[in-house]
Inverse folding.
């Protein structure tokens, strides 16, 4: 499969496929404008001819720009292409825009992207400003430690300890519920936190287990997982807060992908190292 990349600034990477995607999420119907309600976001995307997706492009297993093949890959990438296929008739009609925790919701709110697929945890607080389809994945918050740490055996042991969290996430709030005396410090991204733990600046990093495990595997001589998740983190596809029609449409596609086995196929391809899959149940709130 060949791709042409048009690179502008570092925050925007447009992907244009030149071959039909043979793996991941596939749907062989041809979408037509008449298939969607007049005035809906689905109709607008179909007429535009592409789905614009905010995503990390830096997270192994979920959303990654492969440095060797220069292609985008991962569980969230497969899902984005699946939705693009349903909306436009081709899984190649997708533009990926790199986002970070601090701007991903705003990009949806302002229309910079149609959806955000970026391991965003569904929460009541976030539902006040954006909408969520899904969940499409279930994770849990865990703790990343230095390999030689012998003092942290449970999450409560983080009381009075320095803990790194990513700016713009809920990780610190959740930790303080079980370790209220933890000393929180924030950095811009999970990789920076991991390096700070590895070099001893902080005792631990708290984040979703699905995001921490790849970091531990990158530096097995320096980092390890506590391996005791203390929350359940349902990841949702972010849409505009009042776009109920689009949200429900995406939910239907997610349910279909689970039913026909394409969700599991992508999980096994991208995330099998995380253990047995926890198949989510879509929440149509």
């Amino acid at each position: 499969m060949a791709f042409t990349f048009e690179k502008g600034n570092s925050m925007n990477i447009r992907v244009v496929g030149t071959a039909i995607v043979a793996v991941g999420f596939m749907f062989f119907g041809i979408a037509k404008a008449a298939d969607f309600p007049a005035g809906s976001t689905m109709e607008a995307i179909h007429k535009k001819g592409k789905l614009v997706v905010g995503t990390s492009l830096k997270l192994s297993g979920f959303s990654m720009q492969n440095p060797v093949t220069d292609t985008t890959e991962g569980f969230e990438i497969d899902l984005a292409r699946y939705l693009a296929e349903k909306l436009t008739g081709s899984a190649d009609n997708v533009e990926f825009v790199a986002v970070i925790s601090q701007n991903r919701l705003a990009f949806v709110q302002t229309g910079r992207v149609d959806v955000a697929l970026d391991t965003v945890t569904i929460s009541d607080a976030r539902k006040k400003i954006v909408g969520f389809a899904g969940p499409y994945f279930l994770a849990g918050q865990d703790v990343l430690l230095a390999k030689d740490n012998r003092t942290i055996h449970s999450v409560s042991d983080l009381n009075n300890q320095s803990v790194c969290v990513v700016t713009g996430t809920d990780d610190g709030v959740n930790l303080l519920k079980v370790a209220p005396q933890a000393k929180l410090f924030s950095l811009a991204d999970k990789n920076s936190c991991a390096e700070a733990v590895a070099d001893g600046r902080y005792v631990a990093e708290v984040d979703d287990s699905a995001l921490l495990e790849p970091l531990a595997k990158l530096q097995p001589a320096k980092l390890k997982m506590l391996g005791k998740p203390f929350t359940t983190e349902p990841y949702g596809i972010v849409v505009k807060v009042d776009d109920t029609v689009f949200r429900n449409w995406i939910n239907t596609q997610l349910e279909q992908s689970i039913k026909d086995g394409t969700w599991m196929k992508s999980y096994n391809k991208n995330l099998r190292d995380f253990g047995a899959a926890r198949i989510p149940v879509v929440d149509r709130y």
